[in-house]
Every structure is written in C-alpha cells, then in structure tokens.
Amino acid sequence: MKDYYRGIGMTSDRTRDRLIKRIKEQGVQNTVVLDAIRGIPRHIFVDEALASRAYEDTALPIGYSQTISQPYIVARMTELLIGNSKLPFKKVLEIGTGSGYQAAILSQITTWVYSIERINVLQQQAKQKFKALGIKNIVTQHSDGSLGWEYKSPFDAIMVTAAPNALPKMLLDQLKVGGRMVIPVGLGGSQALMLIVKTSTGFEKQVLDRVSFVPLLEDCM
After folding, report:
1. CA–CA distance from 125 to each of 92, 100, 142 (Å)?
2. Which of 12, 14, 156, 178 is deepest in the core (most CB within 10 A)?
3. Among this protein's residues, is 69 annotated catalytic?
4. Which of 178, 181, 137, 188 is nearest to 158 (CA)?
C-alpha cells in the first residue's frame, strides 16, 4: 500500500491504534470489526484538508450536506449487523454510499457489497477510492436507496446509513430469512437505531440506541 494510503503523522498506525482503543472502551469487541476499522485508511475518505482529523472519533463533512459517520457508529452498526452470524456473508446491501468508508468496512466481512447512492458525484468519488485501495468486491449504483436492489436480492444483511421516517417495506422484502438489517428510523436530528431480523413468520425488531443521521431521500442528483 502506498505511504499516502498507509498514513503518516496524524494518520499513522499509532493514531489508528488509539482510535481502536477508544472504540473498544465504548463497548465494541468484535475482532473482525476492529481489524477492519484498523485496516481501512479513513483519511482517504475525507477531504485532504480534514485528513489530520480522520482518526478522531467524530463525524466529518464530505460535501452535499452529507457526512462520514463517527468511527464508533460505523463499528457499532457493523458489529450489530454481524451479530452471531457465520462470516463471510455472501451479499450485503448498503443504502447510502456517501464517502465509501462504511462500504469499505463492509467489504471485509462479505463476498459482495452492493451499495446505493443518490448523489452521483459521491458515488463516483467512492468508486475511485475503492479502486485506489484495490477493493474489488463493492458494486455501486446511482439510484433511490429506499427501493433497494431487488435484482440482487435476497441479501444476508442490509446496512442503512440514512434515516427514513418508517421502515421501508421494499428493503425488508429484500432480506433473506435469517437476514439482519441495521437502520436509523425517525424524523429530525435524532433517530432510533434499530436491528431487524427476518424470520420465517415475520420480523423481530429491537430499538438499540439514539443516533443522528441525514434523512433518507428519494430524489437523485
């Protein structure tokens, strides 16, 4: 990996290790998730001017009124998505590619990531970053995330990184039996983070945390 991607100074391995320590102190213990967070260079998924802040445990702007999520939230949601499942998953759907960072983390736990982004510029930038890092198991699409990716369903897991007002039926339908969805739901700047598990008779639902995500919008740009 080139030095820029490996990181120096405030983006170095030592800095990443401090971030991992903070995430573990907040309760994330899955070693697969922690190894993915340590291994994927977050600084290339933010603007170069913000690279020195990439390993702070905070959300950062990526343009178009979007953000790259706080590393703890990325780790927490990924750990919830995995649960006690046997890895790797075969197919994971992500709604909201954004910077591409969450998709890159997911690429470490599944054979294929299918990621949907409604903002074309962000989708194209994320694709370039995946290519630069040599990540070849992420497929992206520019479309309305609330519709999912029916052609590629059913999915072992679905990660939603923007908040709808209510659970999107089309996404629920695209989970396989036994599949898991992690999704923030609600209006405004505070939503309920939910874990949905599809069973043979319906869905099991848990409300886990309060989180803050951008809204899930249908219009593409």
Report:
1. 21, 8, 12
2. 156
3. yes
4. 181
User: Is 220 among the domain residues?
Assistant: no
User: Which of 101-105, 106-110, 158-162, 207-211 shows the lowest per-residue confidence on average (mean pLDDT)?
Assistant: 207-211
The whole-number pLDDT of residue 1 equals: 45
Structural domains counted in the chain: 1
Is the residue at 216 inside a domain?
A: no
The residues that bridge with 61 in the sheet, in sequence order, are 67
Catalytic residue among 69, 99, 115, 153: 69
- What CATH number does residue 186 fall under? 3.40.50.150
Q: How many residues does the chain have?
A: 221
Report field, pTM of the whole predicted structure over 0.90 = yes
Please state, in angstroms and rounded to a whole number, the distance separating the CA atoms of residues 7 and 41: 7
Q: Sign of the CA dihedral 113, 186, 123, 62?
A: negative
Type of residue at 21? K
The pLDDT confidence band at residue 127, using thresholds 50, 70 and 90, is very high
